[in-house]
Design goal:
With 314 residues, this protein is α/β, with parallel strands linked by helices. Helices cover 44% and strands 12% of the residues.
């Protein structure tokens, strides 16, 4: 994909998320656009091409630098850039390629502010996550408590299954080295899932901060969606690799976790199903999409139909 279209050629359009590869981590390199290509240049000047338009998310680790041209091309391609810390587990900032659909943002906000609709959506989350209907006549707080108990038991079961010495989920983002190996593996695994889920939420045209079960965080809705898939994708990977590393020396268990997560995203077809699942989840709120006010000014001209997702601007 080139940074700008040649004269007479149609400008590049974003590839739908379901047709992309999942996630790439970049460390200690300069990201730039050279000869129309998105590349990583190492300290010796060697270029490595990254197919930016075919990626859902690029995680920039310490030592990565990026040019204005590269950021511009990633935005046009609808590829999320996420600046992360050591091992990808601290989130510092993220580019925002989505946000092109105000109707979806308003619909999401309407349901988050309506208590009845919000409860219906939380109940649907419970059903998607655990494969059974949520208990009747329970408040959101009560459902959160039931969920917490089940999650702790799932952690204990996976730890026992893979021979992991496990106390509890304990992670301090300001003290990475203090956490034990299983918690570091879990943090690396969930960071991959959160980055990819944020890319999906933005591509679908929704706001990452407007959550239903989680609230008050920049990624509240991302956590809502990611939790649905967590135990079917990345958490078993983290425990399996932590178990192997505790039995025998492993040079880079966290790196192995990230590579395995990339593979499990492909095997489970995560990118193909996440946006339809988001739409199905929000439909459980049973509120109509808001109509534009009658006195609102419409667009001066219609944009051409894009090949990307609803949230992409291209």
């Amino acid at each position: 994909m080139t940074a700008t279209a040649l004269p007479g050629m149609v400008p590049p359009r974003p590839i739908p998320l379901k047709d992309r590869s999942s996630i790439v981590f970049v460390e200690k390199g300069q990201l730039d656009v050279r000869d129309g290509a998105f590349v990583v240049v190492d300290k010796t000047g060697i270029r490595t091409h990254l197919p930016v338009g075919g990626l859902a998310c690029i995680m920039l680790e310490p030592g990565a630098r990026i040019s204005h041209a590269a950021v511009t091309l990633a935005a046009r391609a609808g590829t999320l850039l996420v600046w992360v810390g050591e091992a990808g587990v601290r989130l510092y900032s993220a580019g925002q390629p989505g946000g092109a659909r105000s109707d979806k943002l308003l619909w999401q906000a309407r349901m988050a502010l309506d208590e009845a609709a919000r409860l219906k959506i939380v109940r649907r989350m419970f059903e998607l996550r655990f494969g059974e209907p949520a208990p009747e006549r329970r408040s959101i707080d009560q459902l959160r408590g039931i969920e917490g108990v089940r999650v702790r038991k799932l952690y204990e079961l996976l730890a026992k299954q893979h021979g992991v010495s496990w106390q509890r989920r304990n992670y301090d983002p300001t003290a990475w080295d203090v956490s034990d190996l299983p918690n570091r593996c879990l943090s690396a695994a969930t960071s991959c899932l959160y980055g990819l889920t944020e890319a999906a939420v933005l591509a679908a045209g929704y706001a990452p901060a407007v959550g239903f079960l989680h609230t008050g965080k920049p990624l509240s809705f991302v956590y809502d969606i990611a939790d649905i898939y967590k135990f079917d994708t990345v958490v078993p990977v983290a425990f399996r690799i932590a178990g192997k590393a505790q039995k025998a020396f492993a040079a880079d268990p966290v790196g192995e976790v990230r590579r395995e997560c990339r593979d499990v995203f492909r095997r489970t077809r995560f990118l193909e199903k996440v946006i339809p699942d988001i739409e199905q989840l929000l439909s459980a709120g049973e509120l109509p999409r808001p109509e534009p006010p009658p006195d609102a000014v419409g667009p001066a001209f219609e944009d051409p139909e894009a090949s990307g997702d609803d949230g992409h601007r291209g």
